[in-house]
Amino acid sequence: MESLEFDQTTVRSLMPADLDAVIRLDARITGRRREEYFRIKLDQNLAETGIKVSLAAEHEGCFCGFLLARVYYGEFGLLEPAAVLDTLGVDPDFQRRGTGEALIRALRMHLAGLGVGRLQTEVSWDDPGLLGFFHSQGFRPAQRFCLDLEVKPLP
Predict the structure, then answer these.
(1) What pTM, to 2 d.p., does this model score?
(2) Cβ(54)–Cβ(45) below 8 Å
């Protein structure tokens, strides 16, 4: 993907050289460093076969946001292609300035070009800011429940 311009934000493909910037930005947002998580995620997203859609946002050359997404051609018994937005991070100094929207718009454009008609993600119910952002981008609750099971040794 070549770079796209949205107002004053440039969106481009995420590159292996962005790993440190992603880790720093995520630590600034979450308050913890998840180096191994992002090392594995970026390796998977940038090196494995299959279609990945991982993007970086820059403002005047400053790395200010990223997202990690993948395309699946069939999941949970469905045969239609769907993309999963795994991680989205926007520098707090660039939130509410169109950076997240630019990343989502670029992702949607790319997915539409690939013929992918559905984008899914998960958000903590206790994060009203992120829920509000995704709502403003057109996300709605899915018609399915996400279920978890804590795996423990059986008695």
Answers:
(1) 0.84
(2) yes
Looking at the DSSP bridge assignments, the partners of residue 89 are 66
pLDDT tens digits, residue range 112-145? 998 998 899 999 889 999 999 999 999 999 887 7
CATH class of segment(s) 4-136: alpha beta
Tokens at residue 154, please?
């059986």
- pLDDT digits 0-9 by tens, 64-99: 999 999 888 766 666 778 899 999 999 999 998 999
Domain boundaries, the chain: 4-136
- CA-to-CA separations, 100 to 11, 61, 79, 119, 145, in angstroms, rounded: 10, 16, 29, 15, 26
CA distance 148 to 55: 29
